[in-house]
Amino acid sequence: MASLLTQQKQVVRDLEEAKVKVGILETNAFVANLQVRPTLLDRIKEAQQNDPNLMKILEEIERDDCFTKNDIIFANRPRLLARKHLGYDYTTIVSASSGHLWRNLRRITTIEILSTSRIQMFSSIHGHEVYSLICGFLEALVTANTTRWR
Fold it and tell me: Residue 81 pLDDT > 70, yes or no?
């Protein structure tokens, strides 16, 4: 993949013009760890840290205990018709309101689906999906580059 990026100098130039940083972080047997970071987002985050008006708002939120007083309001999900039908009558972890059912679904998800053994069991599939995503990304870059200059 690194050779694909270095051979496509125009792609790299286009990414630089769009203020997108591309870096190869590490390479292993068949997979390269590719990171694409928009620098605009980084600039916004830096500017937010130096914004005194935003800091005042954040301090007011931290002082106020609205989340401790009204946490049940934020925890309950709105009863939408789509959630009723797609969420099996509000019984999925995404559509269930805060309460016994939601706590039980969260416990099952944590113990069964997100356990270390399950994650390790599916790690090869996750790796293949990441590899496919990166290959698709690079193919799209090459295709966009070739169609742009025809």
Answer: yes
